[in-house]
Amino acid sequence: MKFLVTGxxxxxxxxxxxxxxxxxxxxxxxxxxxxxxxxxxxLARLSQLEVHTNFKxxxxxxxxxxxxxxxxxxxxxERVIHLAAQAGVRYSLxxxxxxxxxxxxxxxxILEGCRHSEVAHLVYASSSSVYGMNAKLPFSTSDAVDHPxxxxxxxxxxxxxxxxxxxxxxxxxxxxxxxxTVYGPWGRPDMAPFKFTKSILGGQPIxxxxxxxxxxDFTYIDDVxxxxxxxxxxxxxxxxxxxxxxxxxxxxxxxxYNLGLGSPVRLLDxxxxxxxxxxxxxxxxxxxxxxxxxxxxxADVSEFSQRVNFQPSTTLSVGxxxxxxxxxxxxxx
Length: 333
Hints:
By secondary structure, the protein is α/β, with parallel strands linked by helices. Helix content is 41%, strand content 18%. It is globular, with a radius of gyration of 20 Å.
């Protein structure tokens, strides 16, 4: 099968593309290699992908409409996994324009490419940030998500609405996955696991926001990739099922799922896992809550697990140990 993976030099995109290549699929990966974080890390990921003869990389910005149009015309993609986006909650407070370019215009270009190429299934990355300050736990896809607290979250919710519109108007099957704090080897330098590990190994203090009164549903990268691989052939239904089990009215072939471990961890407990993996006690700098951040996340993954017959299960101690080992090896520390 022929896949397009956008954001292939990114953290989740790299792991996903590698998984597809190992499974024997033909994969075209695109990325604009922007400088939001280390380009060297992105190039190192790509070097791991380019050993596969069934992988091809093209440097393309998804906001470039003409380039995306040419890409879809040159390749007859059967599946598209859209992971490219401008990430980061705090960065969106300082650079809002890039979020509009990548997450809105870029996503529209991908939708248009899929529509005109009659792609069989578009799977795209959403985010747990769409839940905002939702007080109901765990977070369910049936919850209202109308009060985002960051521009990043607002763009991700906009993606979900845009995808639904294209599913309704053009019959394009779309599935959005709300990722919950993904971490693991080759992870992003702007994420807490990377930042904490770097600082602890370097003897530098780490900033603990909201005085440590926060929790996250940390999800290991291998579990996320397994979920992505399994959802490809699970196309969204095009008909509602009536109470008696019969087929009901036709609906848009669009679905949204949570993809997380389903087990939140206190931030200070997460730091303890890194301390155990490094053998070094962290120097903690307690800070107030940051604008755009949320106190807790917790995924209800029951619907997704039932759909793909898979439950994320990698424990934090195992996942953090694997990340720290990769970090030490990659940076030789």
